[in-house]
Design goal:
The complex is a heterodimer of chains A (249) and B (469). Chain A has nine helices and ten strands. Chain A has 249 residues and is α/β, with parallel strands linked by helices. Chain A has a domain of 173 residues: P-loop containing nucleotide triphosphate hydrolases (Rossmann fold, 3-Layer(aba) Sandwich), CATH 3.40.50.300. In chain A, a hairpin with a 2-residue loop joins β1 and β2. The two termini of chain A are 31 Å apart. In chain B, strands 5, 6, 8, 9, 11, 12, 14, 16, 17, 19, 21 and 23 form a twelve-stranded mixed beta sheet that branches. In chain B, a hairpin with a 2-residue loop joins β3 and β4. The longest helix of chain B has 16 residues. Chain B starts with a helix and ends in a 5-residue tail after the last helix. The interface between A and B is medium-sized, with 31 and 24 residues.
């Protein structure tokens, strides 16, 4: 199994250091969670892994499949199998979910995908939508436009199913979800899990982890990992809050 | 966009639309330059009635007396003496087999006969100054629908033409309308009888092939009470280093309770001045829709207008403009409310790229006494880089209290977060930008017949290719 390795990562935005000497492995076949209070640098990490141009990487490397992916653009990373489920999925008016997903699918698999026609792809997309409880009409809806918060998050999971990533970063996928949506999303993440997929889930709260049972739990604070453990660590955080860990860290 | 990419795009336009078909055996070519003799010769060649010759001569005087417009785009490079005002390539045929082979091949390459078979009710093809082909499905002509070129209409339906010609756009309306009125040739004539619905679109295609040619088609559409029609026009030309001039006049009469949609996809090569006057009179409870797409040309000045002359009339004007390198699209719309209970909606979208300039110039006018008027204007501009430009000139003249008027204008750039989101799914930066642009104009595209929508998206993709990153 491959792993995405983050070594000594340093990140700045507008001269301000957000991530400082961060080391982390995301192994395929495993699910790891990063928890941490607001402003700890979790979402920055998610964006940097995907290659957002706004963040400046000042040190370290991110290695995947033998390459330092820091030199790659977001689309090149996507084609390598990296996926980011957005905390706030972006709306694009005038482009249907189907048109967008078909272009993404062809981009991801460089026209070597199993599915060759958009008609076939539409059916495939409808099946995946049904799994997360979104009806067929979503294929013709404009991308994320007018979707409720829960629908956007579910649609991110659909995209993940379609693009079959090898490394998936889920940035606060649980935030803003009601209990039912949370359960649907978590159940589907469990279904997607496979030996070729490494998942990094970023969250404030333990509740989604109750469904997902991460292999590793890391606590992030001030741009670095200050404690690592298993499921139990998440439970402790839920009970006692971050203050205790931060103090000790 | 660097030089290489620009060449590629120009090459693509050249391959698809910009080819020169080397037709040399013209039946008649007027001497360059404009004078009374040229006008008389055109009228004589067309065997016109005297009233039309007089109309032309009067218009010529107006043209000479009017100064060049000082607003809009840069018109100073037009040299009227260098322009050829009339070229006859071939007589008008109603069967593609009778069209001279070289010209027929041109329209084959442009896909016109194929589209005709698939989904059109009638087709007109104009090459240089006159129609070379015109046909209408038999079931439509059986219903009394007339679709022919303007020259033929003047011969066959002189009374109908005389009754309406020049009544919507008088010769003195503006300098280029005067020019058109003096030297007009070709264009479409459409008449739809009472309560008749034309189920398939009628299409006209305008092609300029020669250098320095002026094309001055004149279109007149009369839709009788309760009737409906969708008319579509397209246009292209080869790329030359010297400029051509296209100055058309379009007059639409929508009688009581009728409905007209007029769709244009203007894709002239970037050496064409496109200065067009388009105007409709909308009578009681009628609806007039202009769907106006401007992609090509060096300079376009065009403001499709609807004069709502009858109670309850509706105007819908939807336009897009794409201004690339060296292009100025000065486009817009006019909604003139001359009666009560009239409604207008103007939606304008523009994209400027590589130093191109897109301007929205519009007018909403409500006269005193026109009660319960509703007018809505939305202008959205998208700037793709720092060098490009967008302007908005919305003129609003409301003389009646109680008018409901909404105006909204936005200028934006493609959002970094949108690009990042699309790229995170495997689209390149250029693909992401193209997708956002296509989404931006989708409110326009969705109004087009499917075949045109596909073609328009392809054209935009072409314009966008390699433009970013």
């Amino acid at each position: 199994m491959e792993a995405l390795k983050i070594k000594g990562l340093k990140v700045e935005i507008e001269g301000k250091e957000i991530i400082n000497s961060l080391n982390l492995d995301i192994e395929q076949g495993k699910l790891c969670a990063i928890m941490g209070p607001n402003g700890s640098g979790k979402s920055t990490l998610a964006h940097v892994l995907m290659g957002h141009p706004k963040y400046k990487v000042t040190g370290g490397e991110i290695i995947f499949k033998g390459k330092n992916i820091l030199e790659l653009k977001p689309d090149e990373r996507a084609k390598l199998g990296i996926y980011l489920a957005f905390q706030y999925p972006i709306e694009v008016q005038g482009i249907s979910f189907l048109t967008f997903m078909w272009a993404s699918y062809k981009g991801r698999f460089s026209n070597n995908g199993k599915i060759k026609s958009i008609i076939e792809f539409k059916k495939y997309l409808e099946e995946k939508l049904a799994l997360v409880g979104l009806d067929k009409t979503f294929v013709t809806r404009e991308l994320n436009f007018g979707f409720s918060g829960g629908e956007k998050k579910r649609a991110e999971i659909v995209q993940m199913m379609i693009l079959e990533p090898e490394i998936a970063i889920m940035d606060e996928t649980d935030s803003g979800l009601d209990i039912d949506s949370l359960r649907v999303v978590a159940e589907n993440v469990n279904k997607i899990k496979n030996p070729n997929l490494g998942i990094l889930i970023i969250t404030h709260y333990q509740r989604i982890l109750n469904y997902l049972h991460p292999d590793y739990v890391h606590v992030m604070h001030k741009g670095r990992i200050i404690q690592s453990g298993t499921d139990q660590l998440a439970e402790e955080l839920e009970k006692h809050g971050y203050a205790n860990v931060i103090k000790n860290g | 966009m660097d030089k290489t990419q620009e060449v590629i795009i120009n090459k693509d336009y050249a391959a698809k639309y910009g080819f020169n078909d080397e037709v040399k055996d013209y039946e008649y070519i007027a001497n360059q330059g404009l004078n009374e003799e040229v006008v008389r010769k055109i009228s004589e060649l067309k065997n016109e009635p005297e009233w039309m010759l007089n109309f032309r001569l009067k218009a010529l005087k107006i043209f000479f007396s009017k100064p060049m417009p000082s607003w809009g785009g840069d018109l100073s490079k037009i040299i009227f003496d260098d322009i050829t005002y009339f070229m006859r390539a071939s007589k008008n045929a109603n069967n593609w087999e009778e069209v001279p082979e070289k010209i027929r091949k041109t329209f084959d390459r442009l896909g016109i006969p194929e589209a005709e078979k698939k989904f059109l009710g009638g087709v007109g093809a104009q090459y240089e100054s006159e129609a070379v082909y015109h046909s209408l499905k038999k079931e439509l002509s059986d219903k009394g629908i007339i679709f022919t070129d303007m020259d033929t209409a003047l011969q066959l339906y002189p009374e109908l033409v005389k009754k309406y010609f020049g009544t919507i756009v008088p010769a003195g309306d503006n300098k280029f309308a005067a020019l058109n009125s003096a030297v007009w040739s070709g264009g479409s004539f459409v008449y739809v009888p009472k309560d008749t619905k034309v189920e398939f679109p009628l299409q006209a295609y305008f092609r300029i092939n020669s250098k320095n040619l002026g094309q001055f088609e004149r279109t007149l559409i009369i839709v009788d009470e309760g009737a409906q029609v969708h008319y579509v026009e397209g246009c292209t030309a080869p790329i030359y280093s010297t400029d051509s001039l296209h100055a058309a006049v379009v007059e639409v009469i929508a009688l009581k309770s009728s409905k007209v949609r007029y769709t244009t996809i203007q894709n002239w090569s970037t050496n064409v001045y496109n200065l067009v006057t388009k105007r409709a009179f909308a009578h009681e409870n009628s609806t007039v829709e202009w769907v106006d797409g401007n992609l090509g040309s060096k300079l376009t000045m065009k403001y499709p207008a609807v004069y709502m002359v009858g109670r309850g009339a509706k105007a819908e004007i939807l336009s897009i403009a794409f201004a690339g390198k060296g292009q100025h699209q000065d486009a817009g719309a006019k909604a003139v409310h001359l009666a009560s209970d009239t409604t207008s909606r103007i939606t304008s979208k523009s994209i400027s790229k590589d130093g191109g300039r897109a301007s929205y110039r519009g007018l909403v006018r409500v006269i005193k006494g026109a009660k319960n008027v509703k007018a809505n204007v939305v202008c959205d501009a998208l700037l793709l880089d720092e060098n490009s430009r967008s302007d908005t000139y919305p003129n609003i003249e409301i003389d009646e209290e109680g008018t409901t008027m909404a105006h909204e204008a936005k200028v934006g750039k493609i959002g970094e977060e949108q690009i990042f989101y699309l790229m995170s799914r495997g689209l390149t930066e250029a693909e992401a930008a193209t997708m956002i642009v296509l989404g931006f104009i989708q409110p326009f595209t969705k109004e087009l017949p499917m075949e045109y929508a596909v073609e328009l998206n392809r054209l935009i993709q072409l314009e966008m290719e390699g433009s970013i990153g």
